[in-house]
Specification:
about 375 residues, alpha/beta, Glucose Oxidase, domain 1, Rossmann fold, 7-stranded mixed barrel, 11 helices, 19 strands, about 30% strand
Amino acid sequence: MEGYLVLSDGKVFSGRLRGAQGQAAGEVIFNTAMTGYQEILTDPSYKGQIVTMTYPHIGNYGTNPEDVESRRTFAAGLIVKELSLVASNWRATESLDEYLARNDITALEGIDTRALVIALRERGAMPGLIAPAAGNDLDALRREAAALPGMEGMNLAAEVSVESGYRWEDLQDPPAGAEPARFRVIAYDFGLKYNIARMFAERGVALEIVPWAYPADEVLARRPDGIFLSNGPGDPEPVHEGVANVKRLLGQVPIFGICLGHQILSLALGGRTYKLKFGHHGVNHPVSDLATGKIAITSHNHGFAVDEASLPKDVRVTHRNLNDGTVEGIESLTHPAFSVQYHPEASPGPHDAAYLFEQFIGMME
């Protein structure tokens, strides 16, 4: 079925619909990863976003039940140059096209993704919609796209978080060879990826996941060894309850944050955040550890960043993005708390930054 991508600035791309072949709306962004499309589709941080894959051929290894990163899909839509209808991998249980259709995700293929990425780099990530060509008036679709809201001011963490708490060990058995549990950590679910929980379990950490606005006093009453602030979608500043809870927890127990959790910790420490032009989405971002000078290639997915100039004097920048100089990590000089903007758990992506889990365990010790 023929379909359109209509951006909020009026630009139109024509292609073919795959997957659910319906209409989808969201912020149109691009991801530079060559693999990991199933992890991307199930990452809650992509809530409200239509993901454009810059690699031209997507779907050749199919999908399977093991490579999901949450309880369901969250991406609003998918755009690719060519979607493989053949799944050539021994782990595959269905094709990407079948997976998209079953999970009600519309994809658009056949457009010039290079031209789209250039437009997003020049003008910034923007709202857009995918729609069937048949039965739709293009001028009406342009007006609809122009009226779509942006990401600023949207508390999407409240939409993706679990409604009630659970223990990771009740959801998934410990991995083979995992250390016995030595620490209990309570994780705030702003959009938690499963591989974060897996990496904690491998290192002997019993993880209890709680909703995004779970009261800090109830957390402290359970006497955890540490607090983890998860990744998640959207603008961090409207997540008021999350910021207030972290303020209450500072100095009471060690805190580690990733992605949105990093931004929420920064806000709780007195900093501010801002919207990036087109965000960081991919698995090849070089990040410098300012203490050691070592460079890690890291996985990213975020549209907002911490304003370095807003950080108080008792907060130190620990990591920096070598592409654009943005803040990639902070630590408090007053409280046992640190965070990073990127994803040390990968999935997809390299494992260069996995040592940060040991750093948190050392802080709890």
